[in-house]
Amino acid sequence: MSAPTGVFLSAVTSEFGQARDVLAGDLRTKGFDVTVQEDFRQEGGTSTTLEKLDDYIRRCEAVVCVIGERSGSVPPPDAADKFAAIRPAELERASYTQWELIFALYHGKSIFVYHASATYEPDKPEPSLEDELELQQGFVHWLFETKGVDRNEFADTKDLQILVLKTELGTVRGVRRVGGQSESGLDVGESRGPSIRRKDTAHAHRLPQNRHALVGRVHELADVVGVIEDREPLVMLVGEPGVGKRTILQELTHRDDLPSDFRDGAAIHPAVKTVENLEDLRQAIWEEFYDANDPSTVKPRDREAALRDLQSLIFFPDADGPAGDGATSPDGVTGARPLTELVPELLDEMPGTVFCITAEEHNAENVPGEPIPIDNLTSEAELLALFEVLYKNEVPVDARPAVVALCVAKRGNPGDIDLLARDARKAGRRSRGSQEDPLIAWAAELAPPDQSPELAKAMKMLHAVGTDVPRGVAVAVLGSSDVIDEAIDDGRLEEGSPRYRLNPVLADNVGQQVDAEAGRPALMLEVFHGTIGWALDALNSEIFENRSFVVRMLQWGVDSGRDLVEQGGDDDVSEARGRWSKVITLGQTVEAAMALSGRHGAWEQVLQSVEGAARSDLEQVSADDRSASPAAHGVARVTDDPKSTKDALGWALHQLGSRALLRDELKEARTYLNKALQHRAGTTARDLTRKNLMQIPLAIVPFAVLVFVPVLLAAVVLAVLNPFDDSAPTIDISPDFLEFETDEESQEFRVENAGDGPVEITSIDIVEAGDALTGFQIEPVSGAPDDSCKRNDEIPKDGFCTIRVRSDGSRSTALLEVKVSSRTGLNGDQSAVLVSEPEHAG
Question: How many CB atoms lie within 10 A of CB 834?
């Protein structure tokens, strides 16, 4: 295994201490070996801090520099004089943080510079006595003006996190290395690309070894091995909860008689520690068989090609678990369907792979393949043998008939027998010191196990949520961790680091009780509030580990709010808006953990929940505004200022666009980023969105070059036969779209040229699914005819024009489409047109 990539993180503590700690944690979560200047100052030895910095930066792979207005402390002259030869002539003196960047440039390291905007709020409001503002101003001028180093601007810690994520994925350009060396991401050791490679399958991930030997499953094991040998694409074990499907799978992954001619390994189980959406499930499988500097650098198309080429055997236990795409789950949350419904799609995408899964019969009806039934045990000898294995002791002869009768009463279900054995062991502990064998008394008159109100609530809570619950959330709802430990000991809860779920054998009974009490909404609300408190204090790694649960709670917050609004009461609407506000808070809290982990499916689900909550809230504000009378409310018809919600919507759309940009989904990125501009209020936020939009044409240049090479060669031949025409060709730029509400009779929109050259308007249309809509009219802007956007008009660089749209009110929303072209030549810089936020006309 290769050593982690060494990254030095440079920042002035008084200005960026908290941001640096957050950033260091994010990078360490991604597997980087992160070091900061304070680490060297705490070391002993005779070397100066400056010498230690130089030594480490020479050995590390990348340097991340966070720069602002403060310089930090300056080393003593004697320490700095040793390095006078490499100090730039323009700088008479330099602080420690400035020297860190000088060392990185001198040693030719990959450098990534992040510059705080004017709106950034430092950790400490005032500079320290060590800070020399003029010294920093001179350094910043030398770095960016004289040296010409690239930089990425950020407004707060969240912006910084996302910028570093994008840099790591190779989307945002870093600083050019000295000597004309190429740009690279943080994985500088292998900077030419993701370097996909197959893993050694000799140490393939397998399911945990069973705690005890299987009883009565010889025939089922033989059946499964036979189907695998026949190379059926899907091997499915079907049976009721508790019958032992997962136990059989665990046994199979450690058997020696499985086929060994799978090129990429047999008995492989994806390290999926939580249920996944389809996108992240593909990623998890890919990571089991392939490796790269950073798996999240692998583009979806490259990953899908690698999975198509795979020849392997994959085990999926608990395929009945909700995955996050599709139907409605028992708790009323839209967006969860069993993994059994995702497997058919995987079969098409991975033709060389055999999947072995477990499922309940009702979830296996639409899955291709012949299921292998796993039934309860019927032999009394096998029932007694299984009870003794789970009881961890021999059953006395006098107690055997009663024990067998209890097992038969449980229909021979191994899960129920496991609960019986646990209760018997507990009864034995309670009767220590008694002369009579405790099992005889227990078996003669089985008393129902004690169940405290707290334990009953824990079981109901887990059933209501319908997925694994993090320990921190469970403790917040129950008020104590003792009840969790008790339930695990009794077998009522199943533990899965660090999550808990209801034993599926008990799920039906608990579900009937919850339905009878109609207690699910109240329990879900408690869990929802507990989740927010837990997420605010949880580490990114904890949030990522529990991503399925987090996504479920976000979606519940959105959907339950909409259900409340349908009830129509003022209190219901107020509660709904409160839930949507908390969804936004929770989503913005957990988003970085999903993004930095490289699980783009969960990242998208979080952002879509925030978008849904923000849109629902804004729609409700608009509805309240329209229904209220001006006389009743005076001038301010809406009491709640929707600005923060609008900002949240703009943020979510921007992040969705950035995600699409990372994945090379350029059309989707352009659409999301253009929509984000409608809702981003701050200048810095709008500039960041424009900056990402401007990357889209740059991102397609490598592909365009490949496409145009044959065209250019043909043009050379044609030029010999035809008169030479030196006029630049016209290039059609991807159209820009803006979705707007038609609640006003007429509205004005501003079209800005944010490119590097003039553009010409090709068309202006109101469309839906590519077709023009009726009921709208494009008309001149009154009082400023020269500023009106018209077909064939040219917009100069940094120029703009205005579109006025009149609506007949027949539709609630519409989509404005602006097409432009540019005559910059095939090798010139393409221009982009951005549609800004509408300015409402009177």
Answer: 23
CB atoms within 10 A of CB 46: 5
Q: Which residues contact 718 (CB under 8 A, 6 or more apart)?
A: none
Separation CA 767–CA 805 (nearest Å): 13
Q: Check: CB of residue 315 under 8 Å from CB of residue 356.
A: yes
User: Whose structure tokens read 């590390």?
Assistant: 60
Going 592 to 593 to 594 to 598, the CA torsion angle's sign is positive
Length of the chain: 842
Question: Residue 690: which residues within 8 A CB-CB, separation 6 or more?
Answer: 677, 754, 834
Planar angle of CA 119, 121, 124, nearest 5 degrees: 150
The answer, as to whether pTM is greater than 0.85, is no
Which residues are bridge partners to 816 per DSSP? 738, 766
Predicted confidence band at 34 (pLDDT cuts at 50, 70, 90)? Answer: confident
Measure the CA angle with vertex 240, ends 237 and 244; round to 5°: 60
511 or 603, which is more confident: 603
Q: Which two tokens stand for residue 329?
A: 């789950």
CA atoms 375, 378, 381, 385: torsion sign = positive
Least confident range from 400-414, 457-471, 631-645: namely: 631-645
Q: Are 177 and 108 in contact (CB under 8 A)?
A: yes
Q: Which structure tokens are listed for 325?
A: 């795409």
Mean pLDDT for all residues in the chain: 75
DSSP 749: E
Q: Select from 784, 799, 796, 790 the least CA-distant residue to 818.
A: 790
